[in-house]
Design a protein that fits this description.
The chain has 24 helices and no strands. By secondary structure, the protein is mainly alpha-helical. Helix 10 (about 165-180) runs parallel beside helix 22 and helix 13 (about 245-270) runs antiparallel to helix 14. The relative contact order is 0.07. The protein binds farnesyl diphosphate (FPP). Farnesyl diphosphate binds near residues 167, 235, 305 and 306. It is a multi-pass membrane protein.
Length: about 500
C-alpha cells in the first residue's frame, strides 16, 4: 500500500507551484490524450540546443517551451500562475465563508453550549499546537521514497532509517559520556599535568559497537510493530509501514548489525560490555516492545534499556584499569558506583521526557492499543514524571560524592535539575494541560545534554589539572621525594629484606 498516492490529475494544477521539476516531468510522462514525443517538436529542439545556457536554465526553457505541457494544462506559464492565484483566492473565500457559517451557527448556540465549545476548542488548540517532532526514521523514509528505485542512495537511506538514527546517536553519546567520566587513577597519568587517558581504540570500538547494537534493536522493534506504527502520525512514515523495505531485508539488517555490534564490543572492548549490548537488544526487542501493548510497566523496562548504554561506557573504561577484568569486578567492583549512577541518570531522565512527549499524543497511543500512563492514568503520569525529575538531584550529588565529578557539579547540576523539576511540577499540577507538557518536553530535551556536558567539564580533578598546566606546580622540597629506611614499618622492612635475599640466592 502506498501512503502517498499520485496526485489525481484534477489536483495537479492546484499543486503546480509546489511540485518540483522532476515530479512535473513524471507527471508529463503520464499519457495525455494527444501527445507528441518531446524530441519531435522543433521548438523544444531549439530550446535544447540554445548555446551558452546552463543545464538548469536549459531545463527550465525546455520545460516551459513545451507545448505538450500547454496541451496538458491548456495554459501558458503566466496563465497557469494566475490560475493558481485564482484558486488560492477562491480557497480563501471559501475558508472565510466556512468561518462565517461556523460563526453564525455558534451565535445560534445556547450560551452555556457556546462556553463549552470555546473551552473544547482552546483545549484542542493547545493539544494540536504541541510540536512533536517527526522522528528521524520517518523523515529519512520520506526522503528515501523520493529517490530513484534501486539507487544506492535510496537503499542506504532506507537502511539508515531502520536504525532510528537520532535515537541511536543519543544512545552512543550517553555511552561516550560515561566512558569519559570514568576516573582514571592519577598514578597512571603519563605526566602529572596531563589528563589521565583512556584508549582511543577502545572508544572507537565502543561507539561503533554500541551504534550497531542500537541499530539492531531498533530494526527489530520496527519489525514487530508496523501495524501499530501505521496508526500513529509520528511513526506512520516508517520504512516498514511504507513498504520501502521487505521484512526479510529488515531482519537481515537487524541480525547483521546485532552480530557486528556485539562482535565489535567483544573483541574491541571486553566481553562484559558485549554482553550488556546483546542483552539490551533482547530486552528492548524481546521484552519492552511486546510489553508496550500489555502493561504500563513497559516504560520502566524501556528506561532500563536507555540506562544500559552509559553502563556499557563505564565498563569499557573500567576494564582498562581492572585487575582481572571479570564481570563481577567491572559491574560491582570498587569504583563501579559511578557507572550505576550514570545509568541511573539516564533511567530517571526518561520519565519526564517520555511522559510529557506521550501526553501530547495520548489519543494516538490509546487508539493504537499501547498501554501508556498518559492515557491509562494521566494523574499518575504527571506524578511519575515529577518523582523521577526530583531523583535527578541525588543522582547528580552522588556523582560528586563518589569522586566522579567535583563538588561544584552539585551547584550547577542542581540549577538545571531545579529547572526541570519546576517544569515537572507544573506538568503534574496541570496534568499536562495549559502547555505544561510542551514545557516539560523541551526542558527534558535541553536538560540531558547540558547535564552531560557539565559533568564532563566538572570531572573530578580536571579543573585542578587545568590550573596546574597554566600556573605550574608549587616548589617541591626534594627531600620529600625520598624515603628514609626508617619510614617503612618493621613488617615492610622485613619483607623487603627477604625479597632482596631471595633475589641474591637466585642469581648464579
Ligand atoms: C546498546 C543498545 C542495544 C541500545 C539500545 C538503546 C535503545 C534502543 C533505547 C531506546 C529506549 C526506548 C524505550 C525507546 C522508545 O521506544 P519506542 O518503541 O517506544 O519508540 P517508538 O514509539 O518511537 O517506536
Amino acid at each position: 500500500m502506498s501512503l502517498r498516492p499520485a496526485l489525481p490529475r484534477s489536483n495537479a494544477l492546484r499543486d503546480a507551484n509546489t511540485v518540483c521539476l522532476r515530479c512535473w516531468k513524471k507527471f508529463i510522462r503520464a499519457p495525455p490524450t494527444t501527445r507528441h514525443p518531446f524530441s519531435s517538436i522543433s521548438s523544444h529542439k531549439q530550446g535544447a540546443i540554445a548555446v551558452g545556457k546552463s543545464r538548469t536554465s536549459f531545463r527550465k526553457d525546455y520545460f516551459w517551451a513545451n507545448s505538450v505541457l500547454k496541451e496538458t494544462f491548456g495554459q501558458s506559464r503566466r496563465e497557469l500562475q494566475s490560475s493558481i492565484a485564482a484558486i488560492r483566492a477562491e480557497a480563501g473565500q471559501q475558508a472565510k465563508g466556512d468561518n462565517a457559517t461556523a460563526k453564525a451557527a455558534e451565535e445560534e448556540m445556547l450560551p452555556h453550549r457556546r462556553r463549552k465549545r470555546v473551552k473544547e476548542l482552546s483545549a484542542e488548540d493547545a493539544h494540536s499546537a504541541y510540536p512533536i517532532p517527526l522522528d528521524a526514521s520517518s523523515k529519512l523514509a520520506n526522503i528515501s521514497s523520493t529517490l530513484p528505485q534501486r539507487s544506492l542512495k535510496r537503499i542506504l537511506t532506507t537502511y539508515l532509517s531502520l536504525s532510528k538514527p537520532r535515537l541511536s546517536f543519543l544512545v552512543v553519546l550517553t555511552a561516550t559520556a560515561a566512558y569519559s567520566l570514568y576516573p582514571v587513577p592519577q598514578l597512571l597519568a603519563p605526566a602529572a599535568t596531563a589528563t589521565p587517558s583512556l584508549s582511543t581504540l577502545t572508544l572507537f570500538f565502543l561507539t561503533s559497537g554500541t551504534a550497531l547494537c542500537s541499530a539492531s534493536a531498533n530494526a527489530f522493534n520496527m519489525l514487530m510493530e508496523p501495524k501499530f506504527d501505521a496508526q500513529m502520525s509520528r511513526t506512520r512514515n516508517r520504512p516498514l509501514v511504507r513498504k520501502l523495505i521487505s521484512p526479510r531485508g529488515a531482519i537481515i539488517f537487524a541480525v547483521a548489525c546485532g552480530l557486528a555490534g556485539t562482535g565489535a564490543l567483544y573483541y574491541g572492548v571486553n566481553p562484559t560490555t558485549a554482553f550488556l549490548g546483546a542483552a539490551n537488544i533482547v530486552l528492548y526487542a524481546g521484552v519492552y516492545t511486546p510489553m508496550k501493548r500489555m502493561s504500563v510497566l513497559n516504560t520502566w523496562v524501556g528506561a532500563i534499556v536507555g540506562g544500559i548504554p552509559p553502563l556499557m561506557g563505564w565498563t569499557a573504561a573500567a576494564s582498562q584499569y581492572a585487575h582481572d577484568g571479570t564481570w563481577e569486578e567491572l559491574l560491582f567492583g570498587e569504583g563501579s558506583t559511578g557507572g550505576w549512577l550514570c545509568a541511573g541518570l539516564l533511567f530517571a531522565w526518561q520519565f519526564p521526557h517520555f511522559n510529557s512527549l506521550s501526553w501530547a499524543i495520548r489519543d494516538e497511543y490509546k487508539n493504537a492499543g499501547y498501554r501508556m500512563l498518559c492515557w491509562v492514568n494521566p494523574a499518575q503520569n504527571g506524578r511519575v514524571a515529577l518523582r523521577y525529575a526530583i531523583l535527578m538531584f541525588p543522582v547528580c550529588i552522588g556523582l560528586s560524592y563518589c569522586d566522579v565529578t567535583d563538588w561544584s557539579f552539585v551547584v550547577t547540576s542542581s540549577a538545571i535539575n531545579g529547572w526541570m523539576a519546576l517544569k515537572a511540577w507544573q506538568f503534574y499540577k496541570a496534568e499536562g494541560h495549559k502547555g505544561t507538557a510542551r514545557g516539560l518536553f523541551w526542558a527534558s530535551v535541553w536538560h540531558l545534554p547540558i547535564v552531560m556536558v557539565l559533568a564532563m567539564a566538572q570531572k573530578k580533578g580536571l579543573g585542578e589539572r587545568l590550573y596546574r598546566s597554566i600556573f605550574g606546580y608549587a616548589d617541591i622540597d626534594e627531600g620529600d621525594l625520598y624515603y628514609e629506611v626508617g619510614d617503612f614499618g618493621e613488617e615492610e622492612e622485613h619483607r623487603v629484606a627477604v625479597e632482596v635475599a631471595a633475589e641474591g640466592m637466585e642469581k648464579p
